[in-house]
Amino acid sequence: MTDTALAAGRPLDLVADFPAIPAGWAYLDTAATAQKPKPVIDAITRGYDTTYATVHRGVYQRSADMTLAYEAARANIADLIGAPANEIVFVRGATEAINLVAQSWAAQNLKPGDRILLSMLEHHSNIVPWQMVAERVGAAIDVIPLTADHRIDLDAMAAMIRPEHKLVALAHVSNVLGSILDVAKASEIAHAVGAKILIDGCQAVPRVAVDVAALGCDFYVFSGHKLYGPTGIGVLWARADLLDAMPPYQGGGSMIDRVSFERTTYAPAPTRFEAGTPHIVGALGLSAAVDYVRAIGLDRIHAHETALVREARAALSHINSIRVLGPDDSAGIVSFVMEGVHPHDIGTILDESRVAIRAGHHCAQPLMAALGVEATARASFAVYNGPGDVAALAAGIERVKRIFG
Ligand code: PMP
């Protein structure tokens, strides 16, 4: 990353940091997974080629060094969301983090007749784990509707929540619509009836500054690979008092205090939730990704992406067969449908013009049903995109229109 690329007042121009993005390719599928900048790739390479060893158990120097680096990564990642290191549990990704909370906290704290409150726009990974635990404990699920401009309706939430709701689980930023939740307000509404609130921050952590204390939530989860880090590593944050009271999720090595065939005692959190040899180099890669976004600044990233989305929305709205979904101020993500053209066809034709978008239900089938569509086309933006990518998208869409006449 050069100083010129980051000079104040200039638009972000960072594509040169991303070796997997060749010139002329508009990669607009960051909401699925982000491309990796060179410093992240270098950190992963270094992790394996000159510094590799296991963590926590080795009595030799290399392992002690790797343990320090691994725990420093935890502290660095914790700092990004304003949390202390001991409140960060490393998991495979947001999906595993939500399953952990469902199978540990919810299975312990929910009883028959209790209720879980979700929203209409949730990703399947913030629906299915709750259905599984609800079935296991005899709880029920309620769903908050959306406003006319496709946000989670917090007035409806306030009207429908009751003391039986023990847990609320909501997306901070929708992976389909880009709408941003007022998490502080949602937390207040949840806490007014004594419910805990989990926030799925998968699409938010790469796009908006997150401070878990200011948000007031109880659990916050995200995946490293959407934050320019590697796959296979993600984060569950929970307040220490909550983590301390939660039973383990998986058993195995590393998560114990003492084991005998009569009785096993567990290590304190977060170790208790990290059974098995962890994704050591994944943590180092994610920490390098955190350094990368921190150097740019999340406020700047947010401004950059919302500007691109606004341009894209304006360009798409000009085409009268297109319906653009989501609110005008959506964060980095825009979904749209085109009359008479399946999103998969849009995606395939755009690919011929070297524009990569996502087409499908985006793991949000209940949302598709609520929007009255089978699927959408989705463009999502990142630090490596620029106005040229919006222009390529718009030109590609014009071509789709010509082909389908
Ligand atoms: N929630 C949201 C909002 C997402 O966008 C995604 C990934 N598409 C997930 C959860 C699941 O993340 P992962 O597949 O990395 O576990």
Structure characterization notes:
By secondary structure, the chain is α/β, with parallel strands linked by helices. It has two domains: 3-30 and 297-404, Aspartate Aminotransferase, domain 1 (Alpha-Beta Complex); 42-294, Aspartate Aminotransferase, domain 2 (3-Layer(aba) Sandwich). It contains 14 helices and 15 strands. It has helices at 3-6, 38-49, 61-80, 94-109, 128-137, 154-160, 183-192, 212-215, 240-245, 280-296, 298-317, 343-352, 365-371, 387-404; strands spanning 26-27, 88-91, 115-119, 140-144, 165-171, 196-200, 219-223, 234-238, 256-259, 264-266, 322-324, 333-338, 355-356, 358-360, 376-380. It has a seven-stranded mixed sheet, sandwiched between helices. It has a four-stranded antiparallel sheet with strand order 11-12-15-14, with helices on one face. Helix 3 packs across helix 10 and helix 12 (343-352) packs across helix 14 (387-404). It starts with a helix and ends with a helix. The structure holds 4'-deoxy-4'-aminopyridoxal-5'-phosphate. 4'-deoxy-4'-aminopyridoxal-5'-phosphate is lined by residues 93-95, 123, 125-126, 171, 175, 200, 202-203, 223, 363.
